[in-house]
């Protein structure tokens, strides 16, 4: 792919990849920033992730994210439209623009929790998106509220973002070294913490942590650093979801489902994100058989 002339990502008039106008910054992190942009073809809004590739591992990781997302077509996964490079060690990935807010900020606005039905509806979408990713041969490895966007364009529609540390299951050479630990500590499955092989059940565990947090206002395991790691590795997981107020009126079946996602050993969890989604749908619609199709 041809490189553009040297450009500054901070310049609001910058044209990247010859096809997208870079606009206001939407957010920033350790490796770069995300801007609102506009496609010069069709005049449609887009989101443009801009990041510097400072280390030898950053370029393959960037390409992994872009390629992973590009092959996942699902309403609950943010769509990659394009990607490429600028001069000066700068990379860009162009995605669909989602008008909304991250799940952590949404929960914070209501005191850290969401009504259980709303939390379950959102997580069904997340799990369906994860299932599509798994079917495409991609394990996300960093499912957390900050990586889930809730669209305001449609009612309670969640989209998964940030596949920067995703792992393919197609047998391609891994970017990370064997035993290297990547992820967000509070949401990482025990096998991920140990640097062992991860699979779809590792994302199921992380999704369970997110749902637990949306219901209870805290993660299932507390502590920092090694204290948190020890808590995850020394117990089989929470037996139930604690009800901290009369308003936490979810059915016992929901507690059972979430507790199972958080079992320490992967073989004791649900086998797939699809299975968890079906279980949650049955909680929302008791007495109705879940649909047989995955999509």
Q: Helix and strand succession? A: EEEEHEEEHHEEEEHHHHH
CATH architecture descriptor text of the largest domain: Orthogonal Bundle
Task: Kindly estimate the percentage of residues that lie in beta strands according to DSSP.
Answer: 15-25%
Total individual domains: 2
Number of strands: 11
* CATH superfamily descriptor of the largest domain: Transferase(Phosphotransferase) domain 1
Could you name the CATH class of the largest domain? Mainly Alpha
Derived structural class: alpha+beta
The name CATH uses for the topology of the largest domain is Transferase(Phosphotransferase), domain 1
Strand order of the largest sheet: 1-2-3-4-6-5
Instruction: Give average pLDDT, whole number.
Output: 83
Proportion of residues in helical segments: 25-40%
C-alpha end-to-end distance: 34 Å
**Poorly predicted runs:** 1-12, 170-181
- CA-based shape: globular
DSSP helical segment count: 8
Cα Rg: 20 Å
Give a quick account of the main beta sheet: strands, pairing sense, barrel closure: 6 strands, antiparallel
Please explain how this structure is put together:
This protein has 295 residues and is α+β, with helices and mostly antiparallel strands. The chain folds into 2 domains: 15-96, 2-Layer Sandwich (Phosphorylase Kinase, domain 1), CATH 3.30.200; 100-284, Transferase(Phosphotransferase), domain 1 (Orthogonal Bundle), CATH 1.10.510. Helices cover 32% and strands 19% of the residues. It has 8 helices and 11 strands. It has helices at 58-70, 103-109, 116-135, 190-193, 200-216, 225-234, 252-261, 273-284, and strands at residues 15-16, 20-28, 32-39, 45-52, 80-86, 90-96, 100-102, 138-139, 148-151, 157-160, 167-168. A 6-stranded antiparallel beta sheet has the order 1-2-3-4-6-5, covered by helices on one side. The protein has a 3-stranded antiparallel beta sheet with strand order 7-9-10. Strands 8-11 form a two-stranded antiparallel sheet. A hairpin with a 5-residue loop joins β3 (32-39) and β4. α3 (116-135) packs antiparallel against α5 (200-216) and α7 runs antiparallel to α8. The longest helix is centred in the middle third of the chain and has 20 residues, at 116-135. The protein is globular and about 55 Å long. Residues 1-12 and 170-181 have low confidence and may be disordered.
